[in-house]
Design goal:
seven-stranded parallel beta sheet; 12 strands; 12 helices; 41% helix; alpha/beta; three-stranded mixed beta sheet; binds thymidine-5'-diphosphate; binds nicotinamide-adenine-dinucleotide
Length: 377
């Protein structure tokens, strides 16, 4: 079956993995990557597939209603997988308005353009889907408690040695929203708008809320790539607070596979949580990263230990995120494919082998190159 699918934010971290997966897996689909190319968007992430016949890049801002409607009509779009967002919590603390603009108004603009276009067609919402990609951070924060008796539902263990839970409470699909950062507040608001478009206008929507992703092409302002790069450059590793905060980590390609599955098989108007059942304290990841990078660079054991620097905690720093992903496992048969240590080693190797990519994105050179290429389009 032919489908014309907009992926917003396809030049970003998760979006680029999803675009790559779908253009390779579904040659009959036309994937239209709509991305504004902010500092976080980089077309070099997609250089291997940029000439595929079933792939088109459109440089556009999701807040531009006329442009969104034009793109919907031009490509006869019948589905949207929406990832474009401002995504870094620390930036949201210093610049909350940009987060409200893109994450809230951008999502609303896209919903409205899809509604106006789809409602203008004879078949209306038949065969259409708006898949909104969101985060576990909308649910707020969990306590650290005794995880006694908590078992991973997955047949592929999320982690070999490490225990995988720091509490008995998990975010389920019905957990009440309780966002704390401007980032998560803006994402929560966008989730509500998506559900409101279903309830008010009958738009076929589906929402996924995923835990922290890691892997290749993640912008090195985020924890794992920032620390890999700093260890390589022998720079301090700024651990917020005491490094006791817990996150549930998932390899980005496993998230992309889950999105593919939910997009195709997820129930209309439903929500699916996606997570690795793989909780780690930040400080334990730092220790693992230091060991791994030192080993791969041939440094003596303990060489980079002294780089660990405890710094002032992030304002409103959520203590623990933990996703219960049993619904997507049970209903759609999804589970992570990689153990965390395996995925982290792959990730470290990728960053060490792709230093040019890291240097380009940290210097901003890629933006100058693509700005000249796409100016006027
Ligand atoms: P990212 O910051 O790497 O990429 C975001 C992309 O969106 C970039 O390519 C950027 O150019 C584009 N973009 C930003 N503003 C835009 C606008 N106004 N118009 C068009 N394009 C715009 O983000 P990511 O980490 O890949 O996250 C993608 C999505 O997944 C986000 O919605 C995020 O909330 C969600 N998410 C991320 C994680 C994670 O761990 N990274 C976890 C769960 C959910
Ligand atoms: P981050 O990658 O920003 O993701 P999020 O805040 O969305 O979970 O951060 C992951 C964890 O790492 C979070 O608890 C904050 C912490 N952190 C640091 O300790 N130092 C840093 O420099 C960064 C960027 C994050």
């Amino acid at each position: 079956m032919t489908r014309n699918i907009i992926i917003t934010g396809g030049a970003g971290f998760i979006g680029s993995h999803l675009v790559r997966l779908l253009v390779n897996k579904y040659p009959d689909y036309h994937i239209i990557n709509v991305d504004k190319l902010t500092y976080a968007g980089n077309l070099a992430n997609l250089s291997d597939i940029e000439n595929y016949p079933n792939y088109t890049f459109v440089k556009a801002d999701i807040c531009d209603y006329d442009r969104m409607l034009e793109v919907m009509k031009m490509y006869k779009v019948d589905a949207v997988i929406h990832l474009a967002a401002e995504s870094h919590v620390d930036r949201s603390i210093t610049d909350p308005f940009t987060f409200a603009r893109t994450n809230v108004m951008g999502t609303l603009t896209l919903l409205q353009a899809a509604r106006i276009y789809w409602e203008s067609l004879p078949e209306k919402y038949e065969g259409k889907r708006f898949h909104h990609v969101s985060t576990d951070e909308v649910y707020g924060a969990l306590e650290l408690t005794d995880p006694d008796g908590v078992e991973s539902p997955f047949t592929t263990a999320a982690s070999s040695e490490h225990h995988h839970a720091y509490g008995r409470d998990f975010f389920v699909e019905t957990t009440k929203y309780n966002p704390h950062s401007p980032y998560s507040a803006a994402k929560a608001s966008s989730d509500h708008f998506v559900r409101a478009y279903h309830d008010t206008y009958g738009m076929p929507v589906v929402v996924t809320n995923c835990s922290n992703n890691y892997g290749p092409y993640q912008f090195p302002e985020k924890f794992i790539p920032l620390f890999i790069n700093n260890i390589r450059l022998h720079r301090p590793l700024p651990v917020y607070g005491r490094g006791e905060n817990v996150r549930d980590w998932l390899y980005v390609e496993d998230h992309a596979r889950a999105l593919d599955l939910v997009f195709h098989k997820g129930k209309d108007a439903d929500t699916y949580n996606i997570g690795g059942f793989n909780e780690w304290k930040n400080i334990d990841i730092v220790r693992l990263l230091v060991r791994t990078v030192d080993r791969l660079l041939g440094n003596p054991e303990g060489y980079s230990d002294s780089l660990v620097t405890f710094v002032t905690d992030r304002a409103g720093h959520d203590l623990r995120y933990a996703i219960d992903s049993r619904k997507i496992y049970r209903e759609l048969g999804w589970e992570p494919s990689l153990q965390f240590e395996e995925g982290l080693e792959k990730t470290v190797r990728w960053y060490l082998e792709n230093q040019q990519w890291v240097d380009d994105v940290t210097s901003g050179d890629y933006q100058k190159y693509y700005e000249s290429m796409y100016s006027g389009r």
